Amino acid sequence: MKKQLGGFLAIFVILLLFFSKATNASADVDSPKLYLDGRPLSVQTGPVIIQDSTMIPLRVIVEQLEFKVSWSKTTKEVRIEKGNNHLLLTINDRKVLVNDEEETLEVPPMLIHDTTMIPLRFVAEQFGLKVVWAKQDRSIYLTNSNNSEIPDYENMKHTGTNFSEPSFDKTIAKGELQSITYDGQEKIVHVKFKGTIAPVSSFLLDQPDRVVIDLPNAVLAANANRAADQPEMQDESAVQANGKLLNIRYSQFSDKPSVVRIVLDIAPHVKYELTQNAEEIQIKLLEQDESSSAVINETDERNKIFKVVIDSGHGAKDSGAVGITGYLEKDYNLSLALKVKSLLEKEEHIEVYLTRTDDTFVELADRAAFANNLEADLFISLHANSLPGSGASGTETFYYSPQSKKLGEIIQKHIVAVIGLPDRGVKSAGYVVIKRTKMPAVLIESAFLSNKKDEAILRDGKKQQEIAEAIVMGIKEYLHLS
Question: Could you list the residue ranges that cross the membrane (predicted)?
Fold first, then answer.
C-alpha cells in the first residue's frame, strides 16, 4: 500500500511540474509587450493581468520611465514622484494617496515572486502618460502627452483606430461636469462640476473668435444636456444682446483619455479670465482694455483691508515629515507661521489669521472652510518637503486654480532669493487646502527635511525669519502694498 501511495505521489509531482512549466510558458507567451513613445521597453518580468487590471513591475517605473521611487521595508510603502505629482501606495492596500488625496484602486500593489507589481494604467495616467491597448498584437502603448502633436481641434473627426481598449482597463474619470450657465449681467460663464478637474487648459482661437476650455479626466453628467437647454444658459437673444458671448457649445471631446471640451463663441476683441475653486470654474469675458490680471487692482483697492490666512500644515497627532535629525515638519510650519504673523501684524492694510496657533490638529477641509468663512483675500499654506533616499533639495510652491498661479510665482521668487537652495518651480496640484479655498491660495514647500543641508536651514531660527520676510514681501507685492 505504501509503495502504491508513493507511486501516486510521484506521478502527481511529475504532473504538477509539467503543468507548472506549461502554465509559465503560456504566461510568457501571453504577457503583453510594452512600448513608450513607440520604443519597446525591456522588461525582465512581463506585465500580468490580475482581476482585469494590468500590473507591471515597479522596476519598470524606475528604470524605463525614470520616475523617482522610494521604498519603505517597514511600512511596505512605495512613493513615486515625477514632475508635479506624487503617489503613495502600500502593498496589498487598495487605498492610495494622490498628491495627498485618498483614492481607491481596483487592484492593490502586490508582491509576486518577490517582485513588486503595481497597476499600470492608474500610475501612468497620474503622471500624464496616455495608455492604449492594441488587441491585435497584445501590446500596451504608453505615450507622453508632451510628445503628442497638437491636433486640429475644430476640424478633428473622432473615428475608430486600429487600437481598441480592453474592457478591464478603462480611463478613470475623476470629475463630472454638472452644468454650464451664463450670467449676462456679470458676463461670467459658470461651469459646475463634482470631483477633481485639474489642470484645466484654455486658449483663444480666431476665424471665428472663440475660447476653448478642456477639462481633463472629466465626463458629462447624465443631466448635463438638460442643463444646457435652460434659458439662463443659452438664450440666443439674451446672449447676443450683451455683445460678448454669442453661443456655448460643449461635448465629450475624448474618451481615451476622458476630456470634456467647452467652446465659447465670442465677439471680436473679447478676452477672458479663468478662475477655479473646488466646485466651479468661472470664465469672465472682458473687453480688450479691461485688466485680465489676477493680481489685485492697485487703484481700486488702495484703502482696502486684506484678510490673509496663514495655514501651518499638520499638527498634534499629525507630525508631517520627519527630518534626518528628528526635526518635525509640524514644528517648523508653526514656527514659520508665527513669524509671518508677527510681520503681517505690522502692516496697516492686512489682517492676519492663523488656522492653528499651537500644536493642535485641524482637518484639511476645516482649514479651507475657515478661510472661506472669513471671505479671506489670500490663503498661504506652509509646509516642508521630504523624499527619503532621493537627495532632493530646494523650494517649490503649489497652486490649484489658475487665479493662484501669479501669487505662487511671486512668493516663490522671494523665497528662492533668500534661502539659497535650488528653485524647483511653481507647480499645479490638487492639495485639499488649496483646492477647496475660494480665494487665491498657494502651498509652499520651503525645503526638504530629508536633505541634511535643507534641514539645517529649516532648523535655523535666523533663516526662518528670512523665509518669513520673503513670504511677506511676496504677499505685499501681490497686493500692491510694497
Answer: none
CA dihedral 446, 449, 452, 456 (to 10 degrees): 60
Torsion angle of the four alpha carbons 315, 317, 320, 322, in this order, in degrees rounded to the nearest 10: 120
Predicted pLDDT at 152: 34
Amino acid found at 127? F
Q: Do domains 33-147 and 175-287 have the same CATH topology?
A: no
Task: List pLDDT tens digits, range 112-152.
Answer: 777 888 888 888 878 777 777 665 456 777 776 544 433 33
Q: Is 251 helix (H, G, I), strand (E, B) or coil?
A: strand
Q: Take residue 459 and report the three cell numbers written for it.
A: 532648523
Task: From the options 2.60.40.3500, 2.30.42.10, 3.20.20.140, 1.20.120.80, give the CATH code of 175-287.
Answer: 2.60.40.3500
Contact 418, 474 (CB under 8 A): no
CA distance 223 to 281: 18
Beta-carbon contacts of 124 under 8 Å, excluding residues fewer than 6 positions away, are: 65, 131, 142
- Residue 41 is placed in which grid cell? 521597453
| 184/399 Cα distance (integer angstroms) | 29
**Would you say the C-alpha torsion 443, 341, 420, 405 has a positive or negative sign?**
positive
Q: Which residue's entry shows cell 492596500?
A: 93
Supply the DSSP symbol for 404.
G
Contact between 373 and 431 under an 8 Å Cβ cutoff? The reply is no
* Helix-strand-coil split of the chain, %, nearest 5: 30, 35, 35
Spatial contact of 109 and 117, defined as CB atoms under 8 Å apart: yes
Please state, as a whole number, how many other Cβ atoms lie within 10 Å of the Cβ of residue 37: 12
User: What's the CA gap between 80 and 142, in Å, rounded?
Assistant: 17
- Half-sphere exposure for 121 (CA within 13 Å, toward CB): 24
* Residue 323 three-state SS: coil
* Cα distance between residue 129 and residue 117, in whole Å: 18
Instruction: Please check whether residue 89 is in contact with residue 118, taking contact to mean a CB–CB distance below 8 angstroms.
Output: yes
CATH: 3.40.630.40, 3.40.50.360, 3.40.50.720, 3.40.50.1240. Which one for 306-478?
Answer: 3.40.630.40
Q: Which of 217, 212, 220, 211 is closest to 192 using CA atoms?
A: 220
List, for residues 407-431, the tens digit of each pLDDT value.
Answer: 999 999 999 999 999 999 998 887 8
